[in-house]
């Protein structure tokens, strides 16, 4: 019996290793190709190549990649901040106030979440052109904030539902109003939820391609996904710079996860109320 159990464990371990290799092989390939020249990517294998940083140097010095990176950071962080400022109040209202108006608003959010964004492209183009917001970061920030609001509002509602109302009531007894108790009691306890929403909104803006490609027509204002696509031409593919750009585009996301991980994992609310 023990031998059969060990065999099953080794088989399971081998299957998991194979699944790991299959799942992460594209990432390993991109990282390896980013250190190889264009000629070696097309003609040589991984073991026969010479790995250098020349492609990274060319990408950072002879292209507009740094500008694309700054544009994506600006748009993603601004939309995440605006989304948090709005969705915190909306999520708190849905969580604490129970009436027909609030229920209808929450149902409307679910309907908006299911609405395909591509159907709004032409009307949005006409509206933003009429108010002179085409080719502007403001238009993209507004769109990213609006498209993420339904989901982030429901996320905050779930976190606020887990915060016992007895904590707020205790603050009211001490002289705090509802707004003051919300700022000083509820928001500090919803730190993990705020970190989750921040990561979600940041990634939405960081990876979005469709809206940025339509509303940002100036090459100097393009975001990173649109800028990376510029390395692909009709008759050629710059695989070296594509791989370098893809690797560098993953770094801010990786750092963002490392910084926000402790807030996501932590149970800030547990033990707050003693029954």
From TrEMBL:
Q: Does the keyword Membrane apply?
A: yes
Q: ABC transmembrane type-1 domain location, by residue?
A: 69-260
GO biological processes: transmembrane transport
Q: Which PROSITE patterns match?
A: ABC_TM1
Kindly list the places in or outside the cell where this protein is found, as annotated in its UniProt entry.
Cell membrane
Which of UniProt's keywords are assigned here?
Cell membrane, Membrane, Transmembrane, Transmembrane helix, Transport
* Annotated membrane topology: Multi-pass membrane protein
The family line of this record is: Belongs to the binding-protein-dependent transport system permease family.
Report what the protein is called: Trehalose transport system permease protein SugB
Q: Which organism is it from?
A: Robinsoniella peoriensis
Supply the source organism's classification.
Bacteria, Bacillati, Bacillota, Clostridia, Lachnospirales
Gene this chain is encoded by: sugB_11
């Amino acid at each position: 019996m023990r031998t059969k159990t060990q065999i099953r464990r080794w088989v399971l371990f081998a299957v998991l290793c194979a699944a790991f290799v299959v799942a992460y092989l594209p990432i390993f390939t991109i990282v390896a190709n980013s250190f190889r020249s264009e000629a070696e990517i097309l003609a040589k294998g991984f073991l026969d190549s010479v790995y250098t940083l020349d492609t990274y140097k060319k990408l950072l010095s002879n292209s507009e990649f740094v500008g694309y990176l700054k544009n994506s950071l600006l748009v993603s962080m601004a939309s995440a901040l605006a989304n948090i400022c709005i969705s915190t109040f909306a999520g708190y209202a849905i969580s604490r106030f129970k009436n027909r108006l609030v229920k209808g608003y929450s149902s409307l959010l679910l309907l908006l979440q299911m609405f395909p964004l591509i159907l709004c492209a032409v009307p949005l183009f006409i509206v933003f052109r009429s108010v002179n917001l085409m080719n502007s970061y403001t238009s993209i920030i507004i769109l990213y904030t609006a498209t993420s609001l339904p989901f982030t509002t429901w996320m905050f509602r779930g976190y606020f539902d887990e915060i016992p109302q007895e904590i707020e009531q205790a603050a009211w007894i001490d002289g705090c109003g509802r707004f003051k108790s919300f700022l000083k009691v509820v928001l500090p306890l919803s730190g993990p939820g705020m970190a989750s929403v921040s990561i979600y909104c940041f990634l939405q803006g960081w990876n979005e391609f469709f809206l940025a490609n339509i509303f940002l027509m100036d090459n100097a204002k393009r975001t990173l996904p649109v800028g990376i696509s510029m390395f692909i031409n009709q008759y050629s593919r710059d695989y070296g710079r594509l791989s370098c750009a893809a690797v560098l585009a993953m770094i801010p996301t990786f750092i963002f996860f490392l910084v926000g991980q402790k807030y996501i994992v932590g149970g800030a609310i547990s033990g707050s109320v003693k029954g």
